[in-house]
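Newbie here. two chains, one complex. Structure please?
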Amino acid sequence: MTAVFAKTPMLTDAVLHYCPGCTHGIIHRLVAETLDELGAGERAVGVAPVGCAVMAYNYFNCDFIQAAHGRAPAVATGVKRARPECAVFTYQGDGDLAAIGTAETVHAAARGENITVVFVNNAIYGMTGGQMAPTTMPGQVTQTSPYGRDPKTAGYPVRVCEMLATLDGTAYCERVAVDCVKNVRGAKKAIRRAFENQLEGKGFSLVEVLSSCPTNWGMTPSGALEWLRENMMPYYPLGVYKDKA
Amino acid sequence: MMSEKILIKGNEAVAEAALAAGCRHFFGYPITPQSELAAYLARRMPKVGGTYLQAESEIAAINMVYGASAAGVRCMTSSSSPGISLKSEGLSYLAGCDLPAVIVNVQRGGPGLGSIQPSQADYFQATRGGGHGDYHIMVLAPGGVQEMYSFTVRAFDLADQYRMTVMLLTDGILGQMMEPVLPSAPADGGGGALCDKPWAVGGGSGKRGRNIINSLYLKPSDLEKTNIERYEKYKTVETDGQMSDGYLLDDAEVVVAAYGASSRIAKNAIDEARSRGVRAGLLRPITLWPFPKKAFAKAAEHARAFISLEMSMGQMIEDIELAIRCSRPVTLCNRVGGVAPEPGQVLEAVLNA
């Protein structure tokens, strides 16, 4: 019998703790496959955020550092400056990257820090039980926006790719989604590109992945993906926002 | 390796010593009165193939140290009081991951934005850890520019030896003053050779298995075990690491305890007291954590009174009382807010003790 599909070596055998229907599993797989394909696993150093992916170090088969909330790009900077030959990446959620860690994100990009950032945007704080995130949609109900996010008092969602694209230091940023097979394939391509850039010394590369959170959105997995397509994609259009190459 | 004396500012002596100790990664953020330290390394690091990086914040700087330390290199950040408050989150994470790092605090007056004048008001913050959770950092208090140099070199060795943060707790007086310094040879012979760090991340995970730097424990019993083990290490540091210095201490009936800049002021007052027939002496803590309890207990055998000379509202005085189990009266002699004590004030305290 020919094996047509197998576990990618860059993932460990640990059972994922993510909720049913969560897309973190898909994104983990894409990052791991990429590291395998590029032969960069042995020199990879991942930086885990605070958020649902806090235990990413259990799942990736490479060296890993768990960072304080929002600080992953600064930690990755320290690693990269100390070990420039390593493939250094952060894996962060929207609260981590676009709220408490905005400064670290923006300035790592502004410096053109030669790292890869995988940014999972699911429009909510997942691990803490579903609070309003910087990327929560106007009108979206969360634990801390129980009447729906009101832009008059809670402001507007942050479009990270658009913001970072204005910086000269950003080499590459693209927004993708993992809601269907076609988009998953596109996400893989973008993630691969973001790592290739680093290995070629091109500078700061970020891939924003629109993701779903069925548990905290209060939806079925397929319903959540439908909601993502109908509500998030118009506000967060997919596409390449910056590509220096 | 330099072997002749050089005339150098305290802040620059720390920077030069860091290079001598093999530190090639510095992450900082501008703040008075430590700016010369960063400026010196901004000039020197590129010349020696090192990294000087001006971070976007104190928080980012300490987290860059966290990353670089995790990757196994000797690294440092420096700041002054308000900046150290911001770095406290990072200090807690460094401790939680048992990462070595050297942090410099050139203290200024507080609380809040306070003043840019010298102070010793961060004693509690330094000796009690600063950040959240059960942990300690080692705290070294230089008394002059020579010690700014030699203690910095020592700090890197201690950090690696114990896998913990070592803070150089100094102040605006010592940071800004110039004195001749004889650059001392670092323990590794001057090449900055690193001790083996098999726990570090960064390449080679295929051969050695992967390394993970982490302070998260989902099982309370695991975290409890880790904390208890870490405190075993701290116990060793407390036993082996206490350092202090004495001046006319052996027969002193009145012991002035002072560290850093205050200790220099104390010496003048002690000389004057001796000339007036009062057997005064100085006990100068060099390590503030671990506090030199043994030296204080010994001094209590011949002293009838202690004076804690501080540029704070009375912080070290608590450690003195604990060290001598309140067996002798301890009085506070202090100036605060960026004001330095005067020898006359100290003399009066000694004569009244």
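Moderator note: The beta strands of chain A are 44-48, 63-66, 87-93, 116-121, 170-177, 204-210, 239-243. The longest helix of chain A spans residues 181-199. Thread marked as resolved.
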